[in-house]
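help with these tokens:
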Amino acid sequence: MSLAPTLLTTPRLILRPHTRDDFLESYAMWSDPEVIRYIGGKPFTREEVWARLLRYAGHWAMLNYGYWVVREKESGRFLGEVGFADYHREIEPSLMVPEVGWALDPAVHGRGYATEAVRAALEWADRQWPASETACIVAPENLPSLRVAHKCGYREQLRTTYKGKPTIVLRRPAHTV
């Protein structure tokens, strides 16, 4: 049985499932060179962003977890995306646990939104999988994302390469609620 994506809220944010109506805002974010600077370095095409949205829906349908759109509660403004995935990455050693990820519009960086959104997603995960750790991968030069990961309880497990680039694998132990 598939778990429907849950609406999550924080004092400043709403995290909700993606819809087709999110495509243009998502495309605007993923085609911004600043957003993808540490995520492959090449702006995403419309086709790649559409495939990404479908992959998010597929994660919820097949794995009972996925990504949420992050919106500012007061204005409804699109801020970015946060969630969990299983990408079956060709990385050694394999992650073997849900991988948290986040991306926010550069115009809202530095306001604590990423940390707030990741913490909300982790609170949800702690209720869903109280005995499971989670992981994330971050480019060593992406200091803002490393700070978010550390604030949310992630600790460096190892340094490796992914797609030929240096990568830090961080893990967060299981939490019970």
